């Protein structure tokens, strides 16, 4: 988890540079999720990304949700799993399940 | 997360102080432990998460909380600003370590030879090590081959709770080293902590290969016990 604080530092820099920023954090995992709970992904309004919440499977969907969270200012808890059709769509092929909390940095 | 909360987490990190961030998943409300007073169940979970460096979930009064430890950076103290150190420093930094290089020889520990993120310390190893005060999140590696530099560093390292101690040198060099450390009062029980010959046995030959074997061994020592516990469960 030593890399997670660097994500916060990056998020802070983006914000200082005038960007809107959202933070996504893995809060629960089941099965073979590639990144442990606590892993972070920062997303900026202009679409920059730092860190990760999976092995690349769900980053696209989370980044898209992050834009919505920045716009609304309301945090959101996202579920990804093998039983979820959306998960197949975004390609969580590893067979794991996870929950990601997406919040605005504001 | 409010910018204020982010700043408080960043400040704790700079101070080398572990904190735990608690997030209520229903509305995103956040608390920071131990800076804020919390319900006993939350405080207990926050303390455990930080101690084990492991995030957790807790439901309290029907509300789901995410307990997220924000441990200070791991440290790697490298004694000897030699060729292997040049290869090891960036690998360790990439693996999340704050890297400190100790070498009183200015020609070795020069800014030209090391990337900007690395801290160079030109004190004698015994003084440097005492000031750096290795803790349980510190790994220590001696690379000089020179007893004048390695021995005082190992003397201090063995008196610390450092989670990893490794010393470069052949089996013969290490046998002599153990004799000298014995004279300093470190018996076989204590010196068993020293990984020597240093690094995983991957047949490393070049400086970067040796560095790779060292960082791999440090990761194995840090992560191995938890993996073994998981396998046994």
From TrEMBL, chain A:
Source organism superkingdom: Bacteria
Membrane-spanning intervals of the chain: none
UniProt cross-references to Pfam families, sorted A to Z: XdhC_CoxI
InterPro entries named in the record: MoCofactor_Util/Proc, XdhC_CoxI
Domain XdhC- CoxI per the UniProt entry, residue ranges: 14-81
Name this protein carries in UniProt: Putative sulfurylase small subunit (Molybdopterin cytosine dinucleotide biosynthesis)
Organism: Humitalea rosea
Upper taxonomic lineage: Bacteria, Pseudomonadati, Pseudomonadota, Alphaproteobacteria, Acetobacterales
UniProtKB/TrEMBL annotation, chain B:
Domain XdhC Rossmann: residue ranges: 76-218
Protein name from the UniProt record: Putative sulfurylase large subunit (Molybdopterin cytosine dinucleotide biosynthesis)
InterPro entries the record matches: MoCofactor_Util/Proc, XdhC_Rossmann_dom
Gene3D superfamilies: NAD(P)-binding Rossmann-like Domain
């Amino acid at each position: 988890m030593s890399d997670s604080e660097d994500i916060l530092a990056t998020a802070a820099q983006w914000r200082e540079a005038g960007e809107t920023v959202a933070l996504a954090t893995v809060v629960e995992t089941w099965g073979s999720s590639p990144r442990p709970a606590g892993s972070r992904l920062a997303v900026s309004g202009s679409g920059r990304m730092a860190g990760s919440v999976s092995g690349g499977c769900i980053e696209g969907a989370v980044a898209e949700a992050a834009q919505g969270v920045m716009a609304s200012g309301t945090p959101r808890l996202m579920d990804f799993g093998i039983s979820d059709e959306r998960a197949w769509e975004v390609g969580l092929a590893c067979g794991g399940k996870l929950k990601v909390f997406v919040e605005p940095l504001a | 997360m409010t910018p204020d909360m982010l700043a408080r987490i960043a400040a704790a990190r700079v101070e080398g102080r572990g904190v735990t961030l608690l997030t209520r998943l229903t509305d995103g409300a956040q608390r920071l432990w131990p800076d804020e007073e919390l319900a006993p169940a939350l405080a207990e979970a926050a303390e455990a998460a930080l101690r084990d460096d492991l995030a957790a979930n807790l439901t309290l009064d029907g509300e789901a909380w995410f307990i997220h430890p924000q441990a200070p950076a791991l440290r790697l103290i490298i004694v000897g600003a030699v060729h292997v150190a040049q290869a090891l420093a960036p690998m360790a930094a990439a693996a999340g370590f704050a890297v400190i290089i100790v070498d009183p020889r200015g020609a070795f520990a020069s800014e030209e030879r090391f990337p900007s993120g690395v801290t160079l310390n030109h004190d004698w190893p015994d003084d440097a090590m005492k000031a750096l005060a290795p803790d349980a999140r510190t790994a220590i590696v001696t690379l000089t081959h020179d007893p004048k530099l390695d021995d005082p560093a190992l003397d201090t390292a063995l008196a610390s709770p450092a989670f990893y101690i490794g010393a470069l040198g052949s089996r013969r060099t290490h046998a002599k080293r153990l004799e000298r450390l014995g004279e300093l009062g470190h018996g076989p029980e204590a010196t068993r902590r020293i990984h020597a010959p240093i690094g995983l046995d991957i047949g490393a030959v070049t400086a970067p290969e040796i560095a790779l074997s060292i960082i791999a061994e440090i990761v194995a020592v840090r992560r191995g016990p938890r993996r073994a516990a998981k396998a046994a469960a």
